[in-house]
Amino acid sequence: MSDEKEKYAGEFTDAYTPQEAELRARKSRNLWLGLALAGFVILVGVVTFIRLSSSDLSQSGFYYSVDDKGERINDLPEGMTPDQAAPPPNLTPIDETQPEEGEP
Amino acid sequence: MTEPSATSDMAPKRYATAGDYVQLLKPRIMMLVVFTAIAGLVAAVGVTGVLINPVMAAIATLAIALGSGAAGAINMWYDADIDQIMTRTSTRPIPSGAVPKEEALAMGLIMSGVSVLLMWLASNWLAAALLAFSIFYYGVIYTMWLKRSTPQNIVIGGGAGAFPPVIGWAAVTGNTPVDAWILFAIIFFWTPPHFWALSLLAHGEYEKAGVPMLPVTHGAKATRNQILLYTILLVPLALLPVATGLGGWIYGLVTLALGLVFLAYAVRVWRSKAGDAGASAADMKLARGMFFFSILYLFLVFAALIVEHAAGLHFPVGGA
Predict the structure, then answer these.
(1) Model pLDDT for residues B208-258, shown as the tens digit of each residue
(2) Which residue, A35, B36, B38, B124, has most beta carbons within 10 Å?
(3) Is the reported ipTM for this assembly greater than 0.90?
């Protein structure tokens, strides 16, 4: 570090040095920008949490339905046919009747 | 469309504070935008019975506020050249040298994206698309095109400020029925008398800046005529929600009373010489009074709607 100082001693004398007031303003702006970014991240997190916990997929009969306590209900929602409950063709539902790899 | 000639070195540099960036977002306009959006949101819940998660509703409202701020920042970026000419706007962050133009533009664009994204996440694509279009409407159609090219700038451009209740409604239900567009129409027809009352006071400044506001191009008398015409259209239009069942007794009575006062202001301004070269101080005070009353009018009309639907006080006229 000191080598570098010696190496560049006397150079960059016209380099811009921010005033104290400018540094304060810059620090304040950075703080607000950081808070805004953090707020955005939190908002997206909250939205994601709410959307997932409202379980749109399960309510449409995609994989399974849940009751108020989050317990699975195997029956299809009233009035829904097995065709309506089927997943889109590009997605295959997990077949829980098949043993997992390694299981007998 | 021409690039504004103003640059960030148009005035002695001062260091921007957080307050300067808040000012870029036009917070007073934002408040009215948010308020009317909440009215649309609450009315949609009251009329359709569709429920929205309160946190999602709050985030959707925040998205509308951010979108409004973004449009404000884009407007200030583009209008920096005329803002520095007019006394009323010369202390804004860009003409005062606090915020570089490019920063204001970047802020506006980033906030536009964030607001639309948040709206989409919190509600649905229709509300997000409407929000995106309203930002485009204000930032591009009004600011870059209409404002400097036609005296009808305020009339057509008023559409931008009329979107919030429609967006609020769409955020709840995912569609925009006639009731939502009635709320749009109320703000749309309210904007010309509101803004022209102000322009009667400041037409000299607009003339200096080369902005073709109606008093500049057609004179104060034509403006006063138009103010009266639009107020006559607005008063019965604002009562239309009573006919559709969107508004009940409270809304009807409040809107009728406020409408009559608004009309009285418009008639008095029409009979005055406000905006003319020889206008008395009383005449100018009258135009100023009408401008401020118009803000109160819109606030109370939408407040009545919110109160009816949020407090369970919605009693449709005729018991429908």
Answers:
(1) 888 898 989 999 999 999 999 999 999 999 999 999 999 999 999 999 999
(2) B36
(3) no
Number of folded domains that form chain B: 2
Instruction: Determine contact: B122 vs chain A, CB below 8 A.
Output: yes
Write down which residue in B112, B147, B176 finishes a domain.
B176
For the segment B27-53, the average pLDDT, to the nearest whole number, is 92
B80 and B164 assigned to the same domain = yes
Give percent of chain B above pLDDT 90. 72
Counted domains in chain A: 2
A42 close contact with B: CB closer than 8 A: no
Tokens of B36: 């009317």
Residue A44 has pLDDT above 50, yes or no: yes
Distance from CA of B183 to the nearest CA of A (A): 28
Q: Would you call A54 and B121 a contact, using CB atoms and an 8 Å cutoff? A: no
Instruction: Inspect the interface and report whether the beta carbons of B55 and A28 lie closer than 8 Å.
Output: no
Domain with residue B116: its CATH number is 1.10.357.140
The backbone region for B156, taken as left when phi is positive above 0, alpha when psi lies in -120 to 50, beta otherwise, is alpha
DSSP sequence for B29-80: HHHHHHHHHHHHHHHHHHHH-----HHHHHHHHHHHHHHHHHHHHHHHHHTH
In this structure, chain B runs to a length of 320
Among candidates A24, A40, A47 on the partner chain, residue whose Cβ is nearest the Cβ of B122 = A47
Residue A59 maps to a domain: yes
Say whether B21 and A51 touch across the interface (CB within 8 A).
no
Spatial distance between the Cα atoms of A43 and B247, rounded to a whole number of angstroms: 33
Task: Show the domain range for B111.
Answer: 1-176
Count of beta carbons in the 10 Å neighbourhood of residue B298: 24
Please indicate whether, in this complex, the C-beta atoms of A25 and B17 are within 8 angstroms of each other: yes
Per-residue pLDDT reduced to its tens digit, A15-40: 777 778 888 888 888 888 899 999 99
- pTM to 2 decimals? 0.80
Query: How confident is residue A68, by pLDDT bands cut at 50, 70 and 90?
Result: low
Calculate how close chain A gets to B103, using CA atoms only, in Å. 12
Mutation to test the B interface, candidates A43, A46, A51, A56, most B Cβ within 10 Å: A43
